[in-house]
Hints:
This protein is of the alpha/beta class and 402 residues long. It has helices spanning 90-97, 107-116, 119-134, 151-164, 184-192, 194-199, 217-229, 246-252, 266-273, 283-289, 296-302, 322-332, 337-351, 378-381; strands at 4-6, 14-24, 36-45, 48-54, 63-66, 71-74, 76-78, 138-144, 167-173, 205-210, 233-234, 236-238, 257-260, 278-281, 306-308, 368-371, 388-393, 396-399. Strands 1, 2, 3, 4, 5, 6, 16, 17 and 18 form a 9-stranded mixed β-sheet that branches. Strands 7, 8, 9, 10, 11, 12, 13, 14 and 15 form a 9-stranded parallel β-sheet that branches. Strand 12, helix 8 (246-252) and strand 13 (257-260) form a beta-alpha-beta unit. Helix 3 runs parallel beside helix 4 (151-164), helix 5 packs parallel to helix 7 (217-229) and helix 12 packs across helix 13 (337-351). The longest helix is centred in the N-terminal third of the chain and has 16 residues, at 119-134. The chain is globular. 56% of the residues are buried.
Amino acid sequence: MSTVIPTSRGNSTSTVITDIGELVTNDPAAGGGLAVVRDAALVIEDGAVAWTGPSSSAPAADESFDAAGRAVLPGFVDSHAHLVFAGERAEEFAARMSGEKYAAGGIRTTVERTRAASDDELRANVRRLVGEMARQGVTTVECKSGYGLTVEQEARAVRIAAEYADEVTYLGAHVVPAEYAGDTAGYARLAATDMLAACAPHARWVDVFCEEGAFDADQAREVLTAGVKAGLLPRLHANQLTQGPAVRLAVELDAASADHCTFLGDADVDALASSRTVATLLPGVEFSTRQPYPDARRLLDAGATVALATDCNPGSCYSSSMAFCIAVAVRDMHMTPAEAVWSATAGGARALRRTDVGHLTPGARADVHVLDAPSYIHLAYRPGVPLTHAVWKHGRRVNDFQ
């Protein structure tokens, strides 16, 4: 049993984590990759990483946590999730597993239920899911709107998301609601004008589902460029169901991330590799929809930056487990365990253009994930096994988990 030994020293509190068997720092100065340090220690002070080094040289601190040879890595950075919703779609999942094809139209079922839910019901669901993520080592969460699809409902969604998520994305252009059936262009104009104006004060990002059955490239560009003018940063649902123009549009607009990237041509891969747009892959979606998995190996070998995220949502992937995504990415997307763990931490940080999370070097936010395992490899080696032993977010201990 790990122990926390408090001592008294002034008003600030520092914590030293000792006897770390394997410390994954993701140190950018080490030339990329995990930058693993063995027999290590780490000091947390004022919400940040203050020191890392050999366990034998660890300085004194107010509190001491004995990792007992366990692996320690940065908290997971989940850069793609849809958490403001009501209801669930288990029957739709069962139908897919029986052979029905996934289509974007199922989103409208969640829209109906979300519109009917109270603020408190939506808050309770977001709080539940963010807590569920934290108990599995996720310390940075991005949350999108997109299940309201009216000015008032989308504004409500981003306000509630901002109460719990680290990063908030306005996704008014998710699908076309029933009341705009046959007028996709009109709804895109609404998403780019009045709806955007109501949502922008509560969000950092603007996103569009650019896909057959949702919005075409011109409509996506309209919403995204309007978002940029309103002070938001662009990201894009891209090439999930078909090989279309969305990835290249994301690169054209210098979007932080093109998410899904399931169907890619050579021009798409080349565009991502020559840009700073991150390819965010969502393996839980392919698991839950029986779509082909994205070719992570092709992207990595071309030099593109890859992130992994859960895409936790009630339709295409109702999982909040980043460890599950890592295991699937290694098994079915041909990533190495090191690449997958980097993509779920530092890669997610890049997809959010954050430099303070996704690594454990002095000055970084103290988001620390202690595994109940001697190596990060166990995240893929022991799929489905809960391996989170302890978590700190911004220097604050989240839970004991024991």
